[in-house]
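Final report, closing paragraph on structural work. Over the funding period we assembled a curated collection of sequence-structure pairs, and we close with a single example.
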Amino acid sequence: MIARKKTRGERNGKTVSRSAPQKYTLRLFVSGSTAKSTQAVKNIKRICEEHLKGRYDLQVIDIYQQPELARIMQIVVVPTLIKQIPRPLKKLIGDMSNKEQVLFGLALNGPAL
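Its predicted structure, as stored:
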């Protein structure tokens, strides 16, 4: 039997995928510049910079300026954060002040943080 040297990215004869960290696509629906909406924007930006730096796209959508988009996405309460990518789609409601709940909702609460 001839022993074969393992190549880079291979473990036990199987190729191991070394993909880049997942990029997140987020939409935050707010209602104008109310205190709760402003706080939600501030909180989610802080969380994203701490845990997703360079790996996220955050779109802030004012339901007064884009009511049709809010209707299509079935937004009934604001602020609402929608995690579109990675799947599954998740909706988080509130001012995003409970960091642990936001991290759990975004599936960022694992040991790899």
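The two ends are 43 Å apart (CA to CA). Strands lie at 10-11, 14-15, 24-30, 56-62, 80-85, 90-93. We thank the funder for supporting this effort.
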